Amino acid sequence: MQTAYTVLILLMLVGVSRLLGRVIPLPLPLVQIAAGAVLAWPTLGLHVALDPELFLFLFLPPLLFSDGWRMPKREFWRLRGPILTLAVGLVLFTVVGAGYFIHWLLPTIPLPVAFALAAVLSPTDAVAVSAIAQNRLPGPLMHMLQGEALMNDASGLVTFKFALVAAITGVFSLANASLTFVLVACGGLAIGVALSWLVGRMRAWMIARGWDDPATHVVFMLLLPFAAYVLAERLGASGILSAVAAGMMQSWLDLLPRQTSTRLLNRSVWGLLEFAFNGLIFLLLGLQLPDIIKAVVSHETTLWPTLLYRCLDVVAIFLVLLALRFIWVQSIWRLSGLLRRWRGKGELTLVPTARSCWLLTVGGVRGAVTLAGVMSVPLFISKGVDFPERDLLIFIAAGVILLSLVAACIALPLLLRGIPKSPDDAMRKEVREAWRRTAEAAIHALEAEEVVEPANPQDAAQAALAAELKARIMSEYRHQLEVFNDSAEAQALASQMDLLESRLRLKALRAQRLELYSLRRHHEIGDDVLSEILRDLDLSEANLGTVK
């Protein structure tokens, strides 16, 4: 029962931290880390013991699957060059550069372990950056950070696992590791794509036979990342890449017919899980902080000088990571511009100014994946032999996460000063065009609908009713065409009419809801009727969006 109470307390704290984040002007991860640290304070004394393998299995597959699902595929393909250089090249550059620096700074950390720490510090968290920047980052930059976060989660953690194996076995061969890396990566991608495709085919087969219950399909989606991870690991491939590939593949397969209810439920469930899992990871970091600090200084005679030196080590490592990232971004971006001009392709979409380079540099915030990876470091190398400096590794990773969040909170608003907070014009244009084309297609389909010639007066009445309904529906789609007309005057008039209509509909819906409550209070309807009608009213109000 104690475990159940702990889980319930943590889930409650995740929700409370979200509310606190609206009041406290700090990123949500920092609020959650602070809440966990307060909960672990000796007076409260909540302690959570973590099994490294269980921690890795529970948290990483769904988070990586969700990242793969959410990533805009077209932008990912357009920016594949910069994304791959950041996600693969920068990871290797960071592992070598930061690994040697960590070993030089802290000789007690063996070189393979230092490489493992540098690898687990490589993954970035685009969700945290988006929350801090508040959608003010230029579109190409945000897409680059999203794509980098998606791919370097995989490349960084796969490199981390290789470095861990080298640290545990003491054997490392660059040629063998390179070949194994390619085989493991390709195998993981293939397994994730294949399994996701099979699940999609199974769902299509079920839908064709009328088995389209949304809850059943959502359960399959919840199990898919874990299945992809476990299957790939059992076959000797990368479970991390398998989960990412399954998510990216499933975002295409999610467009099955007759799946509107499933998609609505699926998005809600995955939004809840992603929020809860990210929150739990940062809460667990806060809960572990007192134990981590105690373990780091336990072998020293003095507390505060040792803790101060360790904090300075964390600052030095963070600054080196920042410098390596800035050097890589500057070098590769300018090299790409030179190559494009040499090949006659013109300038890059986004000019590599000093501001954009610093935005990409500071935007490399470390987050949940780094913490989940470092928490998965085994407790022992072999029976009776502790993993070298495990507590110090977790302390450094936690410190780098905190520093990267604080640095982004300070630097990003300063760098974004003067950049207006406005939606992407290209995206708005695409949205208008898509709505216009779909409305025209609906009108053409209704115009092509054949009206059956009436054979008797009853058929004539039905035909007149059908024609009236057809005209009413077509008028709604013609109104959509007016809304997405390119004329500014037409758009302004249509927006005013939409706002007025939304207010009237909202007033009517709220009157319906009050009447429904009154009927229930007077026992004129039962709870089942109340629940059914209330759900329809809530969906109708949700479709109106935010009405000012």
Low-confidence stretches: none
- The shape, in one word, is globular
Number of strands: 2
Category from helices, strands and their pairing? mainly alpha
Widest sheet: strand order? 1-2
Count of helices? 20
Query: If you consult CATH, what is the topology of the largest domain?
Result: Na+/H+ antiporter like fold
Order of helices and strands: HHHHHHHHHHHHHHHEEHHHHH
Average pLDDT number: 78
Describe the protein in words.
The chain is built from 20 helices and 2 strands. It is an all-alpha fold and 548 residues long. Strands 1-2 form a two-stranded antiparallel ribbon. Helix 1 packs across helix 12, helix 3 packs antiparallel against helix 15 and helix 5 packs across helix 8. It starts with a helix and ends with a helix.
Task: Please describe the topology of this protein.
Elements: H1 2-23, H2 28-39, H3 52-70, H4 73-78, H5 80-105, H6 111-120, H7 126-133, H8 139-169, H9 174-208, H10 214-234, H11 239-253, H12 260-297, H13 304-342, H14 354-362, H15 368-375, E1 380-382, E2 385-386, H16 390-415, H17 425-447, H18 457-483, H19 488-521, H20 527-544
Antiparallel strand pairs: 1-2
Summarize this structure as a short list of keywords or feature phrases.
548 residues; mainly alpha; Na+/H+ antiporter like fold; two-stranded antiparallel ribbon; 20 helices; 78% helix
In short:
This protein is an all-alpha fold and 548 residues long. It contains 20 helices and two strands. It has three domains: 2-422, Na+/H+ antiporter like fold (Up-down Bundle), CATH 1.20.1530; 424-486; 487-548.
